Amino acid sequence: QVHGILNAVSWGILLPIGQLFARYLKTFRSADPAWFYLHVSCQIIGYAVGVGGWATGLILGSRSKGIQYTTHRNIGIALFTLCTIQV
Fold first, then answer.
1. If we measure between CA atoms, which residue out of 17, 12, 7 comes closest to residue 72?
2. At what angle do helices 32-63 and 70-86 cross, to 10 degrees?
3. Rounded to whole angstroms, how far apart are CA atoms 66 and 27?
4. 44-61 burial, b for 16+ CB within 10 Å, e for fewer?
5. N or C, which end of the chain is more exposed by having fewer CB within 10 Å?
């Protein structure tokens, strides 16, 4: 459950909110430096929470000997790699 909660908060809440700050608040001159700091804060916190979710998933996958979620694991590794390259 920890793996799912961490990744849901990271990929489903924080990173999209950070993207929305950059997309929509940037258009208002009154929010000129604030939108950037809000965007960067959400992205950094979201990435850090995502690292925790990714690490938890790898630990859970290595402890699970009987059941293998290879597609889920491969997608998670690919997404995390792309996110890390972007950072």
1. 7
2. 150
3. 52
4. ebbbebbeebbebbeeeb
5. N
Determine the Cα–Cα distance for residues 56 and 80; give it in Å rounded to an integer: 13
- Six token digits for residue 74: 């491969």
Phi, psi of 64 (to 5 degrees): -90, 100
CA dihedral sign of residues 24, 27, 31, 34:
positive
Query: Is the separation of the CB atoms in 42 and 17 below 8 Å?
Result: yes
**11-70 confidence digits (pLDDT tens):** 999 999 999 999 998 888 888 888 999 999 999 999 999 999 999 988 988 888 877 778
